[in-house]
Every structure is written in structure tokens, then in C-alpha cells.
Design goal:
The chain has about 220 residues and is of the alpha+beta class. Helix content is about 35%, strand content about 20%. The chain is built from seven helices and nine strands. The strands form three sheets. It has a four-stranded antiparallel beta sheet. A three-stranded antiparallel beta sheet has the order 2-6-7. Strands 1-8 form a two-stranded antiparallel sheet. Strand 4 and strand 5 form a beta hairpin. Helix 1 runs antiparallel to helix 7. The protein is elongated, with a radius of gyration of 20 Å. The two termini are about 15 Å apart.
Length: about 220
């Protein structure tokens, strides 16, 4: 019973950190060797005014979080469906975390290639991830502009000054295919979208329904 409880909660956590809020695949590349990552341009930029940057802006420190794609996202989602489907041969055949990483990725090769790319563009590793799904790196605005083929400009919106990338980040195709999101290219705080909140609420409601059915919560 304890194993089942832990497995249910673990599956919920995995669902919550799944990249639902981002597009499922990269945009069609604008050149044969690079892909653009969609969904990274702030809607607020259409209402903001570009202002001159300080001379030292390029050397400003940035800490970015790189979120990797699973190599087999569809297979991972099918696993979650099967493991809670009493009609499935995989019902309650829970995988350990290392088994999930090995089976669905991200692979060690993808993780290493992204890290090597970032380090070659001036970034240093701050913190890695045992699941290979995130990389926390630190560099400068200039490093980010070179690595992601963007310009990070300064803007003013309603008396608030902030910086942000002017277009979606672009990466070499072999690297970009493994990147889900790049977080930290802007310092303008963005509220959680209603759509994302609804997804979280739905996942939580399903989790409590499953736990309730087992008598573990009332």
C-alpha cells in the first residue's frame, strides 16, 4: 500500500513538471542548421518601448535554466496511462526514477551536448540535475545573445524598466531538438497563465480522486 501511495504521488509530481506549457516541438527552422524555440517572446513587448542600454549591459550576469525534452515524451505519457489502467498489462508496474530516465530520457548524450554548447559560449554550470531535465547555468547578456541568437534589449512598460530577448532563441538543430525551454532571458515577472493554472488544478483533482478511491485520503 505504501508503495502504491508513493507511486501515485510520484506520478503526479512527474506530470506537474512535464513541459505542458510549451510547444511540443521546435518551430520549422529558418535555416538548415538552426531551430527556433517557440513561446519565448513576451507578449508585453508589443506594448513596451525600447530604451538605450547602459554601456555595461552586455556584461550583466544572467542565470538561465535550460529545460530539456524527454527523448520519448509520448512513450512517457503512455506509460503513465498504462500504469493506472487496470485493463493494461502494465497496470501498477511502476518504474523507478532511474528506470524512467533510462527509458524515456533525456539521454546523457543530449544533456552533455547542451552543456558543452553552453560552456563553449561562456556559460558555467551552476547546478545540474539527476534527472537530466534541467541545467542551471550562469553567463552574461552577451553570452546569451551569442548562444541563443537573440538581442537582449532594455524596455520600459508602465514606468517599469526591464530587459528581454527580442525574438525566440535559436539553436543549432542538433542542440535545439533537445531543448524544451530557456528560462531567464528576461527579468520581467510574468504571472501564471489561466491555462496553466487550470492544468495544475486538473492534475491535482485527478490525484486526489485516485488517492480517495484507495481510501488514503478523505
Amino acid at each position: 500500500m505504501h508503495h502504491f501511495t508513493a507511486s501515485v504521488l510520484y506520478a503526479v509530481i512527474l506530470l506537474l513538471v512535464s513541459p505542458w506549457g510549451w510547444a511540443a516541438s521546435p518551430e520549422i527552422p529558418t535555416s538548415p542548421d538552426r531551430v527556433a524555440l517557440p513561446g519565448h517572446v513576451l507578449p508585453a513587448l508589443s506594448r513596451a518601448t525600447v530604451v538605450s542600454s547602459d554601456e555595461e549591459a552586455g556584461s550583466q550576469a544572467l542565470t538561465l535554466t535550460i529545460v530539456l525534452r524527454r527523448d520519448d515524451q509520448a512513450g512517457f505519457e503512455q506509460y503513465l496511462r498504462d500504469v493506472y489502467d487496470s485493463r493494461s498489462l502494465e497496470y501498477q508496474r511502476f518504474l523507478s526514477l532511474p528506470e524512467i530516465i533510462e527509458r524515456f530520457g533525456p539521454s546523457h548524450e543530449a544533456y552533455t551536448s547542451i552543456l558543452n554548447y553552453l560552456q563553449s559560449h561562456g556559460f558555467s554550470l551552476v547546478e545540474g540535475s539527476a534527472t537530466r531535465q534541467t541545467l542551471l547555468v550562469r553567463g552574461t547578456r552577451e553570452d546569451a545573445e551569442r548562444a541563443f541568437d537573440v538581442q537582449i534589449k532594455d524596455y520600459i512598460l508602465a514606468d517599469k524598466r526591464f530587459y528581454a530577448n527580442d525574438r525566440n532563441p535559436r539553436l543549432p538543430a542538433g542542440i535545439g531538438a533537445h531543448v524544451q525551454a530557456v528560462l531567464g532571458l528576461s527579468n520581467l515577472a510574468q504571472p501564471q497563465t489561466v491555462t496553466s493554472l487550470e492544468k495544475v488544478a486538473f492534475i491535482c483533482s485527478v490525484a486526489f480522486a485516485v488517492l480517495g478511491a484507495t481510501g488514503l485520503v478523505t
